[in-house]
Amino acid sequence: MLAAKGGDKLVALTAYHALSASLADPHCDILLVGDSLGNVLYGFESTLPVTLDMMIAHGRAVVGASDYALVVIDMPFESYEQSKEQAFASAARVMRETGCGAVKLEGGSHFAETIAFLTARGIPVMAHIGLTPQSIHTLGSFRAQGRDEAAALSRSNTPGPIEMDAEAVAAAGAFAVVIEAVVEPLARHISAKVAIPTIGIGASPACDGQILVLEDMLGMTERTARFVERFADVRSTMNAGIAAFSSAVRNGSFPKNGNLYGVKA
Ligand code: KIV
Ligand code: NA
After folding, report:
1. What is the domain extent for residue 255?
2. What's the structural domain count of the chain?
3. Which pTM was predicted?
């Protein structure tokens, strides 16, 4: 399925709908239908209001528009935390109703049992550790994780909580793990130690792959985290195009004859 650890870097982007999926698919190993769509598409303050039905609707659009990449769909808040049975019922719906290849859920050691339960029942799981946005209210902020744990690396061989999360999800059968906003030396250390591919976002170039939110990476969103690199400035392009349409309508230069039926162009 995915390249082995130490092979080519895994390229992953989010996709929320058919248009972005069809553009990103030829370039990516993984397309993630991230619950970040709550922020990016719906303007929610957090990802907590995102529902399973929303993820399924967007997931179906992305699966339909991609041929190459593995489509992974985020399990939204309140769809998997209560019990492993609840997680299976939700994940099975996602798999059956979208045709995606895997699901992702936020959580490390505490969700190892759930991950093992799903993988034993035919559902490939990608884990997500470090900064987990569904837990923003208990984490308290979007600050990078693992500063103390990274500082302790040189002093002790005892793994800290984030490293233990990575080991736990790998042992539970997750096929890959997203490491989000974890200080670089710790993300690098975890990537070297854990047996499954690590996908970094605000983590380390030593991760086995990298993921960004497509709209952030294209420069469409207004504010972004430090870990986002803008590889294009689509926001200005869109602004210019919308402004040009607006003035063309107002000054009567659009539509032209070539845009009309029953008149010579
Ligand atoms: O929802 C999302 O976009 C994600 C990625 C940033 C990893 O979970
Ligand atoms: Na997410």
Report:
1. 234-265
2. 2
3. 0.97
Tell which phi-psi region holds residue 219, choosing left (phi > 0), alpha (psi between -120 and 50) or beta.
Answer: left
The answer to whether residues 200 and 247 belong to one domain is no
Residue nearest to atom 3 of ligand 1 (CA): 34
Dump pLDDT digits (tens) for 44-72: 999 999 999 999 999 999 999 999 999 99
Whether the CB of 36 sits within 6 Å of ligand 1: yes
* Ligand 1 in reach of 127 Cβ (< 6 A): no
Residue 119: closest CA among 161, 71, 84 = 84
Contact 71, 101 (CB under 8 A): yes
Q: How far apart are CA 5 and CA 66, in angstroms?
A: 24
Do residues 190 and 198 lie in contact, with contact meaning Cβ atoms separated by under 8 Å?
yes
Residue 223 has pLDDT above 90, yes or no: no
Residue type at 177 in one-letter notation: V
Integer Cα distance of 62 and 19 in angstroms: 8
Does some domain include residue 4? Answer: no
Measure the CA–CA gap between 54 and 51, rounded to whole angstroms.
5
Q: Could you give the residue numbers annotated as active site?
A: 180
CA of 191 to the centre of ligand 2 (A): 20
Containing H/E element for 11? strand 10-14
Same domain as 242, residue 134: no
Residue 9: how many other CB atoms lie within 10 Å:
15
Domain-located, residue 5 = no
Find the farthest-apart pair of alpha carbons in the chain and give their distance in angstroms, rounded.
Answer: 80
